[in-house]
Structures are given as C-alpha cells and as structure tokens.
Amino acid sequence: MHNQKIKFIVDVMLGRTARWLRLFGYDTVYESDTNDDGLLFQTLIQRKILLTRDRKLAQCAGSAAYLVRANSLWEQLREIISEFAIEPKIVLVRCPVCNGNIVQVEKSNVFDKVPEYTYLTHTKFWQCRNCGKIYWHGSHLNLADKDIAKYLVDRKGDSDGN
Ligand SMILES: [Zn+2]
Q1: Surrounding residues of ion ligand 1, Cβ less than 5 A
Q2: Domain membership flag for residue 1
Q3: Fewest beta carbons within 10 Å, which of 7, 25, 37, 52?
Q4: Residues with Cβ within 8 Å of residue 59, at least 6 apart in sequence
Q5: Number of domains comprising the chain
Q6: Same domain, 62 and 123
Q7: What pTM was computed for the model?
Q8: 74 & 38 share domain
Q9: Domain with 112 in it
Q10: pLDDT of residue 155
Q11: Exposed / middle / buried, residue 21 (Cβ in 10 Å: 0-12, 13-18, 19+)
C-alpha cells in the first residue's frame, strides 16, 4: 500500500537512498550543503520525516526523525521500505535527480531532446518540470527494475502468486 503523502528529508549520508525514494514516488529532499539546523528547520516547519544516520540529530528532531541503522545502500532501503510500508516500485512522479515533479509529455515535444533511436522506439515520455530531464521506460529504468527485484523485493512471502 502506497502512502505517498509522507515527505522525507534526508541527511548528507543518505543521498543515494534519496534517489531511490524519489523513484518510488516520494517527495524526498536532499541537499548536500544543508547543515543540521537547516535539516531540523525544514523537518519541523514542513512536516517532513527526517531520515538520518546521526543519533544526535535524530534525538533533536524527536518523533519527526527516523534513525537509519543499516550501513549499506540496499540494507538502508530495505529498512526504510519496511518501516514506512513503501512499495519498492518505480512511479514516475518525482525526479530522482532533483525531486521536481515529473509529468508525462507529448512525444513530439521531446523530438530534439532524446537520442533518435530512443525517440523511434518509445511512445511515452516524461519530463521533470524543475530540471527538464526527460525519462522513458528504457535502459536506466530497466536497470533500476532489476536492482529492485534483486535487492528489495522480499521473495520469502511470495504471497501474491508471482
Ligand atoms: Zn529534475
């Protein structure tokens, strides 16, 4: 069950994690130049969940913080997915690069912005309204799907038949 109303802000140690949360459709702020005060301010004023590896910072933010215990990227993602009941599935609504909103755009609009082969072989395109980056269900997202299947999908349960 998706709960994409949750908005995350992550500390400087969780930049790669942030990209994945955005791919899963979650509003996730990551600014490498924001200090602890800035993180706390945004967390509390904007009612976000602070994901942090810093115990002290987590204490300062109280119930608005979640202290990430795992060390590696995939362990961290599994921990966060489990804690917040996140479905590890790519939803193209948040730009993984900048956290801007992604919207589907007319194919003709991207004619001169994507490689010719990509243009000819795909029908659906999306674009970030903030940074302008264009997305399609091609190689990058396929690789991401493979990583999700390999590292994040819990096969123990196998409850959905597939
Ligand atoms: Zn963007």
Answers
A1: 95, 97-98, 100, 128, 130-131, 133
A2: no
A3: 37
A4: 65
A5: 2
A6: no
A7: 0.88
A8: yes
A9: 103-152
A10: 58
A11: buried
